What does this fold into?
Amino acid sequence: MKTHRLELFADYFQFYLQDEESEGNLSNAWSEDAVIRMMAVTAGTVGIGTVRNMTVPVTLEFLDAEPRVDLAEFDHVVEGAIDVPSGRLVVAGCTDFFADAPRFDLPPGTYKVRLSGSGFDTLSEDGLEGRDHYLVQLWSDSFVEPKVLKQHAG
It folds into this structure.
């Protein structure tokens, strides 16, 4: 397992996982259902929803196999998939300068993506402060449509 701790500006309540050579256009993917599940998917790109429109802590894990799901530990859990044919994954806020965004090398292929979010109920009244956290786990797998395993009530 490889773990990376990031701080990403979640402008418009989102950040991206994107194949380096993908267009990364999620404008049509953020349907009402995608907003509710907090995950939008298009070719080579996954949009991860957040509960704050601020810089948020993200833990990114690259795994050898599917991890156990611990629904009790998280407020919201959703899975989807991303194709990474270039072997370079870019992780960025949607308004970040793409050239400066962190990049991660991995074997080209398809990866399951699991978002597990916690601390959603810790937001300040104005929604600017909170102890929300986003665990994003990836492992080699086949493509699947996004599926919510646990839905946050908020």
User: Anything to note?
Assistant: Residues 2-150 form a domain with the Substrate Binding Domain Of DNAk; Chain A, domain 1 fold (CATH 2.60.34.30). The chain is about 5% helix and 45% strand. The helical segments are 32-37. The first helix runs from residue 32 to 37.
